[in-house]
Amino acid sequence: MQVTQAYRFALDSTPARRRALASHAGAARFAWNWALAACTTRHKAEGKWWSATELHRLWNQTKKTDPTLGWWAENSKCVYQEAFRDLDRALREFVRSRNGARKGRLGFPRFKKRSQCRDSFRFSTGVMRCAGRTVALPRLGTVATHESTRKLTRRLDNGTARILSATVSRTADRWHVSFTVHVERPAPARHARPGSAVGVDLGVTTLLTGVADGGTVIEIPGPKALRTRLRKLARLSRVHARAQPGSANRAKAAARLARHHARVTHVRTDTLHKVTSALAARYETVVIEDLNVTGMLANRRLARAIADQGFGQARRMLTYKTGWNAGTLLIADRWFPSSKTCSDCGRRKPNLALSERVYRCGGCGLVAGRDVNAARNLLVLAASGAESPNACGGDVRPGLAGRSPAKQEPGTTPGVGETGTAAAQATATR
Ligand SMILES: [Zn+2]
Hints:
single chain; alpha+beta; 3 domains; seven-stranded antiparallel β-sheet; five-stranded mixed β-sheet; 11 helices; binds zinc ion
């Protein structure tokens, strides 16, 4: 199976190399702004913009005649070209969003300001390679990486991967390269453990509670990456806010704060990757809830805890990783009462406070952890077939009102009548 995936490496760069990286990022920003100005001028006169190809041609003429652009050759020509492509895409997507041809509302592209936009640039042609603890990039040459590139190198060597492009960007004080790679992955015809299933409840107190077929309970407490680092974050923010604007101390405080934020993100992403990989490898069918992440983030008391766990990310990772393992991700309907239903007798509690961490059933006397009870209910859906298949799961089954959960971003609200019938079917099967 052919998949497009990213391999991202942190770069270890010398001061000279860092200047070259910053110069390329500046060139990309300049090219974007130059092209945006050219497009705006033309649009005023002729009512249309330049395409990426036209911009490239225009740039090639201008850079040779305009003496103030004499520095262009210090950076790879690819960087300018890719900035024009980015602007071309941004303009086209802006028009599509205006016409309602795409989801979301996009604003008109804006000029980029140093210090206020991400330092980033891209190569799509030229020498892009990796070996050991180095990567080779056009114009920049060989750059040391912070970690070994062996996973990608091995794939490049045996011909199961091809690099399409390389995006270099800065997060806090560290530069990263992200290779977009076309990978030929062995497509297993069946999952390694056919028939295995797990119901997964994503929670705030526990990152993840899973109940596997056979009743095994898996509990992942979650790194609470942000919570433990929150006091430090508050202190760093305070120092930053109190420093004189424009001073050297302010800049130093900002850098420390950015580093701390980046660290939090890394810890969270790492945990999520490990957990989702393990689940997708071990179970053929993974059932999760369709969480309304945006809606939950609107709850001020819970927002930080939820954002800290990265529910949206967990779901996205499970979607593609189950696909790689020939498994299926099932997403229960958003209104499926997984927490409110007794996993033993099926009786439902209409009102279940979020503070009730233990589920006590008034009917059969079941006492179970709230998350465990919810996960057991989700596991039942794996067998009942009353659920939504993921992108790799094949056809949309009847009774789903044509909703494809894999395409629906977490947080978008389905329209009335589109809510699916998974909940009704699931209760009917009991
Ligand atoms: Zn019960």
